[in-house]
């Protein structure tokens, strides 16, 4: 497939929140979309929700009624895989379960025309393991949309080991048509954005066990200019998502860092949607209100786990959260998961609410000077252990007087 295939028709598998957003992205970009879900009732509800969104956009004056009608007309339900045989692209948007995605890709591979591109909207899973169950691994890639997909600008395009360059080009061209900011990422657990987020989140959880409180961590992060701190983010996303995933996987539930989350979930405090999470929310309000009950719970859990609490100031909170991002970003750059540091910054500016005036985590680190970053990481490793071991790339660049911006990786 040397020539870039043109994507005129697409199909989306899954009528959950992500599926709905992706269908709208495609329809808004002028693509004819067929929509499948194994639950007909859910598909019907999802179509209604999409129609409501378009009606809302008309009321807001964002589009006129004729445009809303044209977008609705591009979306049609499909009964089975045979009905979508002629689609140029299929995007699978079911929940994060490798076996389920592999089963879907086997069926898609058998049912779709040979030139069709098969994409998974996965946030973490191995694209190569998904491609391996098909006879067309060169036409398989990841299209990681961010929720809500029809609003968030970022699109991580995940390149598998065998993804053809023409298929990547077709995805980039589609991203442009959808008005997305697209970044190509290599295949690893969590790709660029979520792999770094995992380290940042772990650090924020360690901070509350060692002596901070959730609202203090958020205040320090928001004071730096982030759209929201990690604990407000958990409340928005739903604290129960990771909790249920750990239950399902049968592992990770006993890690000290997730004990506060576990207690909150056991109390039914799932975040904004349940009115209580790390914060309290009045009925119908999204305003996060400080809840002393959560502070008391954090103190109980950290005592139970044997932590000697100490005062932690906003400077330390900020330094540890930012350096957790930077150190993992350096590993991602060194491994060629990102081709340049600007791609990592683009992901963080457009998908994770990093303050625009700071240019992204890698640009921020370059501005501090990598010798300074290296010294701070070595200090943290001395105080808090091996997970702060500086990335080899930081050691090399600091020694050579270079910056992250000087690194270019060839794919």
Chain oligomer state: single chain
Major β-sheet annotation? 8 strands, mixed
Count of helical stretches: 17
Q: Provide the spatial order of strands within the biggest beta sheet.
A: 3-2-1-4-5-6-7-8
User: Would you state the CATH class of the largest domain?
Assistant: Alpha Beta
Series of secondary-structure elements, N-terminal to C-terminal: EHEHHEEHEHEEHEHHHHHHHHHHH
CATH homologous group name of the largest domain? NAD(P)-binding Rossmann-like Domain
Count of domain modules: 3
Mean pLDDT: 95
Distance separating the two termini: 18 Å
Question: What's the gyration radius in Å?
Answer: 22 Å
- In total, how many beta strands? 8
Taking pLDDT < 50 over at least 5 consecutive residues as the criterion, the unreliable ranges are none
Annotate the secondary structure layout.
Layout: E1 9-13, H1 17-28, E2 32-36, H2 40-59, H3 65-73, E3 75-77, E4 89-92, H4 98-111, E5 117-120, H5 127-131, E6 140-145, E7 154-158, H6 165-177, E8 181-185, H7 193-210, H8 214-224, H9 230-237, H10 240-249, H11 259-266, H12 292-304, H13 314-334, H14 341-351, H15 361-368, H16 370-384, H17 392-400
Parallel strand pairs: 1-2, 1-4, 2-3, 4-5, 5-6, 7-8
Antiparallel strand pairs: 6-7
Helix pairs in contact: 1-2, 2-3, 7-13, 8-13, 11-12, 15-16, 16-17
Enzyme class: lyase
Keywords: Isomerase, Lyase, Multifunctional enzyme, NAD, Oxidoreductase
Domain 3-hydroxyacyl-CoA dehydrogenase C-terminal: 190-281, 317-402
